[in-house]
Design brief:
This protein has 423 residues and is of the alpha+beta class. It has 2 domains: 211 residues, FAD/NAD(P)-binding domain (3-Layer(bba) Sandwich); 176 residues, D-Amino Acid Oxidase, Chain A, domain 2 (2-Layer Sandwich). The protein is built from 11 helices and 21 strands. It is elongated.
Length: 423
């Protein structure tokens, strides 16, 4: 776990299990209390962007004993890193490097959530079948699943209906259940993590600040902010998420990156019903890499979803947050130009109409709606490039950031430590 002496004494409060937990300032005054009182002019590592990639690169740099500065343009991250279901789903990743990163991320989240006292739920994921062909495919996938770190169990139609309060028996023909998938509240988690980082002696946090230039100067990277501050670092990680215009726009423009805008809803739950697990529609079977690879291995090809849904990138998830509210989504609108945050009533209607086929006993009263924007490297699934051996650009991880970002960040910082340790 984490040695308590890594926290400043003023940030320690006793936990209910004899552990040391971080104290969290009032969010109304957070801009005054979160930022580090004084800053050095030079750091071992500077990370730009406090989303999932940035926060975890800063965290692991700090854990390696590197004096670190994390710069975030808002008080806390506000884009797709906190506007998602909070699902950590190795089940969606094919066996290999990305699944390994996902499983590593599960371990990282588990350790951190226990320390930060943030709820982490092993809800599991249930992927539904609507046709006999989909059910047969999932049944064969369960038989072939030999990964003990990501086990799966096939449920018949009757078992699927019994597993949840709200599934439509006329829709479900079976399901594949992955019990080890996790869920947390991403906004709560990143506020707690960054708040704790700001209290440590090895990492400074500079919120409400935009880095406007990053340049190599001799053996260091020089960072200048919109407020006129300058910092230097031996290594700088630029994890600026959906912002491809402020830093290195010419590089991003030439690297086959695209934007993805997702749209999500929160539904009321007046009767306090419980789903029991996170539920994915059959569209997932034709969208996620693990299922596409399984189709290839089985020599089958499941039909694509309705063209109207496919055009809008709609894949239905239904989950519940820790307040027992239903979270429904989502859509994926891809573009090469930065999208607006306007919401589409048409997309919302398509999401709800498909969900009505999957679920019964739900009122579908929308009590909140939002969008999130991330970037995706269209061919590689990740964009990483190092400039002058000290400026590291990392973005384009797509929709798998929550699931694999922590594991990826740990890899990168470990590799950096190996480079620095060479004579």
């Amino acid at each position: 776990m984490f040695p308590p002496d890594r926290l400043q004494a003023s940030c320690l409060i006793p936990g209910n299990r004899g552990s040391v937990l971080p104290c969290f300032p009032d969010t109304h005054s957070v801009s005054e209390t979160m930022s580090t009182p004084t800053y050095q002019s030079e750091y071992d590592v500077i990370v730009i962007g406090g989303g999932v990639l940035g926060a975890f690169h800063a965290y692991f740099a700090m854990r390696q004993g590197l004096k670190t500065l994390l710069i975030e343009r808002n008080v806390f991250p506000q884009q797709a890193s906190v506007r998602n279901f909070g699902l950590i789903i190795p089940s969606a990743m094919p066996a290999g490097r990305w699944r390994d990163r996902a499983i590593a991320s599960c371990e990282i989240y588990s350790e951190l959530c226990e320390f930060l006292d943030v709820p982490l739920r092993r809800t599991g994921t249930q992927y539904l079948a609507h046709t006999a062909a989909e059910a047969d495919f999932l049944k064969q996938m369960a038989v072939a699943c030999e990964d003990s770190l990501c086990p799966a169990e096939y449920y018949s139609a009757e078992e699927t209906i019994r597993s949840s309060c709200c599934l439509n028996p006329e829709f479900c023909q079976g399901s594949l259940f992955f019990p080890h998938d996790l869920q947390l509240d991403p906004d709560q988690f990143f506020r707690a993590l960054i708040n704790w980082i700001a209290c440590t002696s090895d990492c400074d946090y500079l919120p409400n600040t935009t880095a406007i230039t990053v340049e190599s100067q001799e053996s260091l990277a020089c960072i200048r902010t919109s407020s006129g501050r300058t910092f230097q670092a031996r290594h700088t990680f630029v994890c600026s998420g959906a912002d491809l215009q402020t830093l290195f726009p010419e590089i991003y423009a030439s690297r086959n990156l695209q934007y993805c805008k997702l749209q999500m809803l929160k539904l009321s739950n007046p009767e306090n019903r419980t789903l029991g697990t996170s539920i994915a529609s059959p569209i997932a079977l034709t969208r996620y890499p693990a299922f596409l690879k399984a189709q290839s291995l089985q020599g089958v090809s499941l039909p694509a979803p309705d063209p109207v849904l496919q055009e809008r990138g709609i894949q239905i998830w239904m989950t519940q947050n820790q307040n027992n509210e239903f979270i429904l989504g989502d859509s994926h609108a891809y573009s090469t130009d930065a999208p607006t945050e306007f919401l589409s009533a048409e997309v919302e209607s398509h999401i709800i109409n498909y969900a009505r086929k999957m679920f019964v006993k739900l009122e579908f009263e929308v009590i909140d709606r939002w969008c999130g924007i991330y970037t995706e490297a269209q061919s590689a699934g990740l964009f990483q490039q190092t400039l002058d051996d000290r400026i590291h650009l990392i973005t384009g991880i797509g929709g798998k950031g929550m699931t694999t970002g922590p594991g990826l960040a740990r890899e990168n910082i470990r590799q950096l430590s190996l480079i620095q340790s060479r004579p």
